[in-house]
Write a structure and sequence with these properties.
141 residues, Multidrug-efflux Transporter Regulator, Chain: A, Domain 2, 2 domains, three-stranded antiparallel β-sheet, 3 strands, elongated
Length: 141
């Protein structure tokens, strides 16, 4: 039998509040949390790995509802692997779009910093730093 961890042990290991673990369970994200006779939660190493994944997915902007769909599919077994792949492919596309947008915004910030560092005015339309900033501001992403 594998080692089971208490809620406080898991919270400490993952550097989060036990309330987060309780919330994830109430939200239907954790389907395999065992209980002792005294009703204390006990987490398997597999449950801890799932929690780690869910925390990363949440950090990337995946909604609780989408994560619930994903964990429901896990609970249904191997026959749902293709559906899980679709969820991750869709999420990856969303992340790629966010990364592209953030990269563009970073480029604008860098261009504006260059304008400030060169000391030019926005009225100097022919200056390379102003042209670059203007081009970035006018580009649609």
């Amino acid at each position: 039998m594998s080692e089971l961890f208490s809620i406080s042990e898991v919270a400490q290991q993952l550097d989060l509040n036990p309330h987060t673990l309780r919330y994830y369970e109430r939200a239907g994200l954790l389907f395999a949390v065992e209980r002792t006779q005294g009703n204390a939660r006990r987490y398997s190493p597999e449950a801890v790995e799932l929690i780690k994944l869910l925390l990363k997915l949440r950090a990337t902007g995946m909604s609780i509802a989408q994560m619930r769909i994903y964990t429901d599919l896990i609970a249904q077994g191997e026959s749902t692997v293709n559906e899980r792949v679709e969820i991750f492919e869709t999420h990856r596309q969303s992340l790629d779009s966010q990364i592209e947008s953030l990269t563009h915004c970073r480029d604008i910030v860098n261009a504006k910093l260059e304008v400030y560092k060169t000391g030019v005015s926005m009225s100097e339309a022919n200056h390379p730093a102003i042209q670059k900033l203007t081009q970035l501001l006018n580009r649609k992403i």
